[in-house]
């Protein structure tokens, strides 16, 4: 499983997500390392389809269920909107769903 955390240094939200992500991976029994990827320019943001910091991808898929059609790439702190409200980091259940979906897909292959 490939777990990528895309961020830019001027946005503190990725630092808030990182310890929660490590704890969540441990609870889910996943030993994979988190690949930290710094996005440093607008060109890189567009090339990476970077929707803001932090962006979490599991096997190349953004964990946000509504991310696929979006094109608002850029150097910004990302906000995650769900039924619970708007937050600087993604809801834990989105991450859990993405991890479990990825695990299931890996078993199906």
Describe the structure.
It contains three helices and six strands; from the N terminus they run E-H-E-H-E-E-E-E-H. Strand 5 and strand 6 form a beta hairpin. The longest helix has 17 residues. The chain is of the alpha+beta class.
Topology:
Layout: E1 3-7, H1 13-27, E2 34-38, H2 42-48, E3 55-58, E4 61-62, E5 80-82, E6 85-87, H3 92-108
Parallel strand pairs: 1-2
Antiparallel strand pairs: 1-3, 3-4, 5-6
User: What radius of gyration results from the CA coordinates?
Assistant: 13 Å
- Provide the helix percentage: 25-40%
The structural class is alpha+beta
Strand content: 15-25%
In spatial order, strands of the major sheet run 2-1-3-4
The coarse overall form would be globular
Order of helices and strands: EHEHEEEEH
Q: How many alpha or pi helices?
A: 3
Distance between the termini: 13 Å
Largest sheet, in brief, is: 4 strands, mixed
The pLDDT mean sits at 92
Poorly predicted ranges: none
Keyphrases for this structure?
globular, four-stranded mixed sheet, about 35% helix, alpha+beta, about 110 residues, two-stranded antiparallel ribbon
TL;DR?
This protein is of the alpha+beta class and 109 residues long. 36% of the residues lie in helices and 20% in strands.
């Amino acid at each position: 499983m490939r777990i990528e955390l895309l961020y830019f240094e001027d946005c503190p939200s990725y630092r808030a997500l990182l310890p929660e992500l490590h704890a969540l991976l441990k609870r889910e029994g996943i030993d994979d390392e988190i690949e930290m990827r710094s996005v440093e320019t607008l060109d890189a943001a567009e090339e990476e389809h970077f929707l803001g910091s932090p962006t979490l991808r599991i096997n190349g898929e953004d964990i946000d269920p509504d991310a696929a059609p979006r094109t608002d790439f850029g150097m910004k702190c990302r906000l995650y909107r769900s039924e619970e409200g708007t937050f600087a980091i993604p809801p834990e259940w989105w991450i859990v769903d993405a991890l479990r979906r990825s695990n299931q897909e890996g078993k199906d292959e």
